[in-house]
Amino acid sequence: MIVCVCNNISDREIRQAVDLGISSMPELRRDLGVGTCCGKCVSCARETLHEALEAK
Ligand code: FES
């Protein structure tokens, strides 16, 4: 599922980023560009990030 339409980032890519050591929204923003355009994806991206961190 695409989380960030503007930057074409899927939940899978967010999970992969967490596996590689990302643990916060600022890091996700910096490394993948999530939420850097319209910002509509931020709450969904945050939820996906936290789920991935909990599953670690
Ligand atoms: Fe992510 Fe627009 S959908 S910044």
Written description of the protein model:
By secondary structure, the chain is mainly alpha-helical. The chain has a single domain (2-55), classed as BFD-like [2Fe-2S]-binding domain (Arc Repressor Mutant, subunit A, Orthogonal Bundle), CATH 1.10.10.1100. Helix content is 55%, strand content 9%. It is built from three helices and two strands, in the order ββααα. The chain has helices at 11-19, 25-32, 42-55, and strands at 2-4, 9-10. A two-stranded antiparallel ribbon has the order 1-2. It is globular and about 30 Å long. The mean pLDDT is 98. It binds FE2/S2 (inorganic) cluster. FE2/S2 (inorganic) cluster (FES) is lined by residues 4-7, 35-41.
Choose one word for the global shape: globular
| Strand order within the widest beta sheet | 1-2
Strand percentage: 5-15%
Please write the CATH class name.
Answer: Mainly Alpha
What is the average of the pLDDT values? Answer: 98
Profile the largest sheet: 2 strands, antiparallel
Q: List each distinct ligand once.
A: FE2/S2 (inorganic) cluster
Number of helices: 3
Number of domains: 1
Using the 3D structure, state the CATH architecture. Orthogonal Bundle
Number of strands: 2
CATH topology category name: Arc Repressor Mutant, subunit A
Q: What oligomeric state do these chains adopt? A: single chain
Q: CATH superfamily, please?
A: BFD-like [2Fe-2S]-binding domain
Terminal CA distance: 20 Å
**In terms of per-residue confidence, which ranges show pLDDT below 50 for 5 or more consecutive residues?**
none
SSE series: EEHHH
